[in-house]
């Protein structure tokens, strides 16, 4: 594990840039909605636009009238985001789309919003991803750190190899239900899971140069 206050660049960036060049044309067919009521949504937008996707921001209910085929739930404060989603009448409409199979990527707080269960705190988010999440799981000592770990699935051909992972006051997944599968672990803790078209990560892939996780999301 590499402890640091900021992300590091890795040798994966060259391969990532090559994949970006190859995929940009196909990605331009996608419109991704990024939840922008609170949190670190800009970095996701920049990453997705780098990959060639069209990006819109969701701030209020009328934004849902726009056409989009994918959703990103960024890091931030999960309780605040859940509250604002309810106040802006966006929670149930988005829940219906996620349950209906729309691809979604939830990072850090976004993972908590997706989780079916949250230990010690009822965030009352979407509850569509069959996992139990522990919030602020790493405590102050490891409040922020960076490492690399394998990312992939034993149940499919999906295997990205080692990817950079940046954690900021991160949760981890305490338990994965029967409907979900583990995608990554760090020091014995589950830090990424998938259920159908839903991917949830404890870390922030948008804060590193490696684009493979966002490309995986666009390929769903």
From TrEMBL:
Question: Which PROSITE patterns does the UniProt entry name for this protein?
Answer: GATASE_COBBQ, GATASE_TYPE_1, PDXT_SNO_1, PDXT_SNO_2
Q: Does the keyword Ligase apply?
A: no
Q: Which InterPro entries match?
A: Class_I_gatase-like, PdxT/SNO, PdxT/SNO_CS
Q: Which UniProt keywords apply?
A: Glutamine amidotransferase, Hydrolase, Lyase, Pyridoxal phosphate
Q: Which GO terms describe its cellular component?
A: cytosol; glutaminase complex
Signal peptide per UniProt: none
Q: Which reaction does it catalyse?
A: aldehydo-D-ribose 5-phosphate + D-glyceraldehyde 3-phosphate + L-glutamine = pyridoxal 5'-phosphate + L-glutamate + phosphate + 3 H2O + H(+); L-glutamine + H2O = L-glutamate + NH4(+)
Keyword Transmembrane helix listed? The answer is no
Which pathway? Cofactor biosynthesis; pyridoxal 5'-phosphate biosynthesis
Q: Subunit details for this protein?
A: In the presence of PdxS, forms a dodecamer of heterodimers. Only shows activity in the heterodimer.
Function comment: Catalyzes the hydrolysis of glutamine to glutamate and ammonia as part of the biosynthesis of pyridoxal 5'-phosphate. The resulting ammonia molecule is channeled to the active site of PdxS.
HAMAP family linked? PdxT (MF_01615)
What NCBIfam families does the record point to?
PLP_synth_Pdx2
Which family would the database say this protein is a member of? Belongs to the glutaminase PdxT/SNO family.
Protein name, per record:
Pyridoxal 5'-phosphate synthase subunit PdxT
């Amino acid at each position: 594990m590499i402890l640091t206050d900021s992300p590091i660049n890795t040798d994966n960036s060259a391969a990532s840039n090559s994949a970006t060049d190859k995929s940009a044309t196909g990605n331009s067919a996608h419109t991704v909605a990024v939840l922008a009521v609170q949190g670190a949504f800009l970095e996701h937008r920049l990453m997705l636009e780098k990959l060639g996707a069209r990006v819109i921001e969701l701030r209020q209910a009328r934004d849902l009238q726009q056409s989009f085929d994918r959703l990103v739930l960024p890091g931030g404060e999960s309780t605040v985001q859940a509250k604002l989603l309810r106040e802006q009448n966006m929670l149930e409409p988005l829940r219906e789309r996620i349950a209906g199979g729309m691809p979604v990527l939830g990072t850090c707080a976004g993972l908590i919003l997706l989780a079916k269960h949250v230990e010690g705190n009822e965030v009352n988010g979407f509850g569509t991803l069959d996992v139990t999440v522990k919030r602020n799981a790493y405590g102050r000592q490891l409040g922020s750190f960076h490492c690399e770990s394998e990312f992939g699935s034993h149940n499919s051909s999906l295997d990205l190899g080692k990817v950079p992972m940046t954690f900021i006051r991160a949760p981890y997944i305490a338990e994965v239900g029967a409907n979900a599968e583990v995608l990554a672990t760090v020091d014995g803790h589950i830090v990424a899971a998938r259920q159908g078209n839903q991917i949830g990560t404890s870390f922030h892939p948008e804060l590193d140069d490696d684009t493979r996780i966002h490309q995986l999301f666009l390929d769903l």
